[in-house]
From TrEMBL:
This is Molecular chaperone DjlA. The chain crosses the membrane at residues 7-29. It holds the Pfam family DnaJ. Keywords: Membrane, Transmembrane, Transmembrane helix. Residues 179-241 form the J domain.
Length: 243
């Protein structure tokens, strides 16, 4: 199974089929044929694989789309991605993931079709987590490229993430009081009570437990996202002199 073998094991899932299956088929080898044979068995459904497997494959394909969005992929970008994946997945899996990315970069990514497949098969909280990881990739060099931001915004719409949640995640990668309000999805004219209510709502919405099923590799990013909600609340409290 090559690269994907070390990343997702040997389970079969929805990602074997459709546009994503067409993109990664070369990495699946005999697994794709086995999946086709299995389709229709066990109650007529497709093999499910695991939520983590589908998330990893979705992330690799969408990362590729973001990297290619400005028309070129620089060696420096691959170096940033390598370090990013190493911190998230460890050395061996990061090396294999980068191998998958290098081959995906050579292909045209049918973004609308891929995103539709992700939207249908990946839970909402996991889709929000995908956005956070994509923005982390986009800012790996310390700068958010407007073209890449536009691509991530397009992805957010196509995978069904609400505009308010998209804005909340985007503003986690800026450091100012205006962004703090957007993270809590309120305006600066909100009352102190409304600020507290918004914080409780967003802390619940972005709690790391919502994506615990993705495994420990992605808990660091989930914890970072949750910490940004706390940071935004503390920043607003300090600015207002709230207790």
């Amino acid at each position: 199974m090559g690269f994907l073998g070390s990343l997702i094991g040997f389970g079969l899932g929805w990602w074997v089929f459709g546009p994503i299956g067409a993109l990664i088929g070369m990495f699946l080898g005999g697994q794709a044929e086995q999946a086709t044979t299995m389709e229709g068995k066990v109650g007529g459904g497709r093999p499910q694989g695991t939520a983590r497997d589908g998330f990893v494959v979705s992330l690799l394909v969408l990362m590729t789309a973001v990297m290619k969005s400005d028309g070129k992929v620089l060696r420096s970008e691959l170096d940033y991605v390598k370090n990013y994946l190493r911190n998230m997945l460890g050395d061996e899996k990061a090396r294999d993931a980068l191998g998958v990315l290098r081959d995906l970069i050579k292909k045209d990514i049918p973004l609308a079709d891929v995103c539709h497949q992700v939207r249908v098969n990946v839970g909402y909280d996991s889709r929000v987590q995908l956005l956070h990881l994509l923005f982390g990739l986009a800012k790996a060099d310390g700068y958010l490229n407007p073209v890449e931001v536009k691509t991530i915004e397009q992805i957010a719409g196509l995978i069904g993430v609400s505009p308010s949640d998209y804005q909340a995640v985007l503003n986690m990668f800026y450091d100012n009081i205006e962004s703090a309000y957007k993270i809590l999805e309120i305006s600066s004219s909100a009352s102190d009570d409304e600020v507290k209510k918004a914080y409780r709502k967003m802390a619940l919405r972005f709690h790391p437990d919502k994506v615990s099923h993705l495994g420990p590799e992605f808990q660091k990013s989930a914890n970072e996202k949750f910490a940004k909600v706390n940071d935004a609340y503390n920043k607003i409290k300090k600015e207002r002199g709230m207790n």
